[in-house]
User: Which sequence fits this backbone?
């Protein structure tokens, strides 16, 4: 089923964490594995799409040789890479767990262990998906939300604020959902619809997400 259903479409997917350098040997990062994004890339490729996968540091590997993998490190690099392709994509799926803040300055040398306290000033990183939303012309944009409170409200707020067509909510309250797990439990929202799914493998979740995207493209 679903083979060739994305034939002729170009899908861009962001995945993994970003690493924000503190000095030449240290960074601020997070525990994102990149699994959800890599599963989405594999499934989109299986359906015949041209797939551009832009991933932060992740140990995931790809089976499909046709996926165009671009490895980046920081949020800034991810933003720049996304916009090399943005005009030519049909579908954009932002599954990356982008760092929200990065050190204002990267120390040129390794920071020495001297004082008892060390302060590192952080500044906001660019919001990649929000920027995609602002520049949207024809692209169908999908975002993810990982919330711990007022989840549905916050997810729907992001749908509006980032000018998305669809948002996938994974709840941290559900056992086995989100981040490092092999499984995920999601709810999908568009401006007018809501659909809840059971806990399943990230490969199966990728199928559900792309089925939903395809159903929206037909509208
Ligand atoms: O605002 P929040 O980080 O909760 O939004 C999550 C969604 O936005 C995810 O789809 C994530 O990939 C995307 N995002 C992004 N760039 C950021 C922060 C989040 O693309 N700097």
Assistant:
């Amino acid at each position: 089923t679903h083979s060739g259903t994305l034939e002729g479409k170009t899908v861009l997917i962001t995945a993994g964490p970003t690493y924000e350098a503190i000095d030449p040997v240290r960074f601020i990062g997070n525990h994102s594995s990149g699994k959800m994004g890599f599963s989405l890339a594999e499934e989109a490729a299986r359906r015949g799409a041209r797939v551009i996968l832009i991933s932060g540091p992740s140990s995931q590997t790809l089976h499909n040789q046709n996926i165009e993998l671009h490895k980046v490190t920081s949020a800034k690099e991810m933003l720049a890479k996304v916009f090399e392709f943005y005009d030519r994509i049909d579908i954009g799926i932002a599954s990356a767990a982008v760092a929200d803040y990065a050190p204002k300055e990267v120390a040129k040398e390794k920071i020495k262990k001297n004082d008892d306290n060390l302060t590192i000033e952080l500044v906001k990183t660019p919001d990649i998906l929000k920027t995609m939303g602002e520049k949207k012309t024809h692209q169908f944009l999908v975002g993810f939300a990982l919330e711990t409170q007022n989840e549905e409200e916050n997810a729907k707020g992001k749908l509006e604020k980032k000018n998305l067509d669809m948002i996938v909510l994974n709840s941290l309250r559900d056992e086995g959902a989100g981040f490092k797990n092999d499984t995920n439990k999601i709810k999908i929202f568009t401006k007018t619809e809501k659909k809840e799914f059971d806990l399943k493998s990230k490969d199966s979740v990728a199928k559900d997400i792309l089925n939903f995207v395809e159903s929206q493209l037909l509208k």
Summary: Residues 14 and 94 are 5 Å apart (CA to CA). The chain has five helices and 14 strands. The longest strand covers residues 140-147. The domain at 10-108+117-217 is CATH 3.40.50.10300 (Rossmann fold).
